[in-house]
Each structure stands twice: as C-alpha cells, then as structure tokens.
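Key result, reporting period 2: structure in, sequence out.
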C-alpha cells in the first residue's frame, strides 16, 4: 500500500517534551510533501495554537491541512479554505457553565488571539495557554461573553474533579454533546459525533483518498478513533496503553523522533 497522507497529533507525538519539532523530523516532513504527500496536523488545540507549527513545516506551500479542536475544524493551509466546521449549539454554553462553576475548575474557550477563561485560571489553564502560545483572558460572565460560534469548551482542573464532571456532563448531554478527557486534567466538551476520525472522513472525501492510504500517529485518548480508522494506525512508545493496544504499529517515543521513524519505514519512495 502506498500511503499518501500522514496525520499527526501534536503534543506527545510530533513535538518532543520541549514542545518542539526536531530538525530531522521537520526535514523529513517537508521532503514527503515535496513528493506530493499530504501532512495533517490533527490536534485538540485551537487553530491559532496549531498555525505556528503548520508554518514551520511549510504546510501552506504544499496544500496540507490543519485539523483543530479535535476535529471541529479543518483548514486547507494553502488556500485558508475551511473544509469542515462544526460548532457547539449556543444554548448549551450557559448550561455547561452553570454546572461547572460550582466546582473548583476553570472553563475555557478560544478567540483568535486568546484563551478565554470563565471562572478562575488554574495551573491547567496556564498550561493550555503555554501550549498554544495564547494569553489567558479572564471574563466576568462567560455565558454572556461567549456570544460567537465556538468549536469546543475545555474544562481544566484536578483529575479527580474532571473525572466527576465528565460523568455529570455525559449524563446531562449524552445525546447532544461529545464529552471526554484528552488528558486527566483536560475535559473536552465537543459537538456530538465530533472526533478526529469523523473529521478525517470528511477530509479524505474532499481530496479523493481512502482511509487505506492514510497513516495516523498519536499518543492520547483523543487519538484512538483516528488510529483505529487509519490504514496504518501508529501509537507512540509513550502512548496510553489503550492506544498501543489498538494500534497496528508502535513507533519510537516523541523524544526519539518516533514520527521520523514512521516516515522512514512507510513513506519513503
């Protein structure tokens, strides 16, 4: 099988522990794009948090793609065309806010230039700010402030509280929203049926490829659906155990150029 598309989670996969792409991996990703293959950066990050890495890899020169908000939005980097965009129903935002503000957590969403904090920024809010290189903007009334379309909400807090809230919100919104933790302290609130695999189906259809022609690499719970869907699903050596269990191949860790190893094994002409 000739693989034509390489889909990469960012944190814990493409980037090392310093949140950087190593020069050998960067060079290899540019080379496969020069050969006509497409690279997709698939992340839970908001689009502004993915753009710097997309530019670093010259995705705009080769018509490669950003899949942000865990699949809520897909953008063609060459044309800035939004191929797919799914936002939360506006009516759920006040309800989610009213539930979570009774707990010792923060609730976040995103503008083009900031992470919007609706309760009180905590260490996990600051981590999200650092990862995306966006400042935190604290607002007084989150439900009133967020009067624009958003692709997701992120609840940040102690893992035990995040786990409890996951159960509460799933029971409340199980037919309306997709709710899961991307990390023990990050609780994602997404539109129903939105995950990386669902959105990759839309992307593949738009470019005339099939899942058999796609490699997906990841390490976290939110990468599981795309790893199962891909023609070749790859788990990093540092991946969650369930991701490794469901992968077709386990590569080296993100601190050992695991993505480069995949390219050399499966995508070189």
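The corresponding designed sequence is given below.
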């Amino acid at each position: 099988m000739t693989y034509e598309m390489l889909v990469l989670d960012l944190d814990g996969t493409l980037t090392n522990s310093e949140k950087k792409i190593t020069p050998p991996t960067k060079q290899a990703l540019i080379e496969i794009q020069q050969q006509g293959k497409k690279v997709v950066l698939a992340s839970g990050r908001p689009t502004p948090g993915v753009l710097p890495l997309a530019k670093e890899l010259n995705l705009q020169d080769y018509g490669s793609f950003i899949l942000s908000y865990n699949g809520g939005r897909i953008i063609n980097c060459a044309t800035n065309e939004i191929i797919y965009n799914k936002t939360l129903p506006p009516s759920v935002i006040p309800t989610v806010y009213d539930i979570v503000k009774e707990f010792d957590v923060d609730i976040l969403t995103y503008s083009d230039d900031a992470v919007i904090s609706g309760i009180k920024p905590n260490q996990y809010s600051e981590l999200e700010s650092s990862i995306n290189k966006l400042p935190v903007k604290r607002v007084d009334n989150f439900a009133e402030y967020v009067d624009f379309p958003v692709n997701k909400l992120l609840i940040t807090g102690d893992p035990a509280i995040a786990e409890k809230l996951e159960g509460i919100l799933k029971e409340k919104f199980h037919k309306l929203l997709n709710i899961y933790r991307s990390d023990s302290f990050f609780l994602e609130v997404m539109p129903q049926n939105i995950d990386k695999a669902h959105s990759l189906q839309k992307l593949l259809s738009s470019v005339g490829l099939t899942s058999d022609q796609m490699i997906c690499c990841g390490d976290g719970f939110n990468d599981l659906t795309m790893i199962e869907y891909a023609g070749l699903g790859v788990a990093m050596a540092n991946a969650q155990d369930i991701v490794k269990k469901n992968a077709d191949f386990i590569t080296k860790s993100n601190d050992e150029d695991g993505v480069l190893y995949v390219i050399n094994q499966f995508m070189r002409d």
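The domain at 5-86+194-266 is CATH 3.40.50.1000 (Rossmann fold). The chain has a mean pLDDT of 96. This case is discussed further under Risks and Mitigation.
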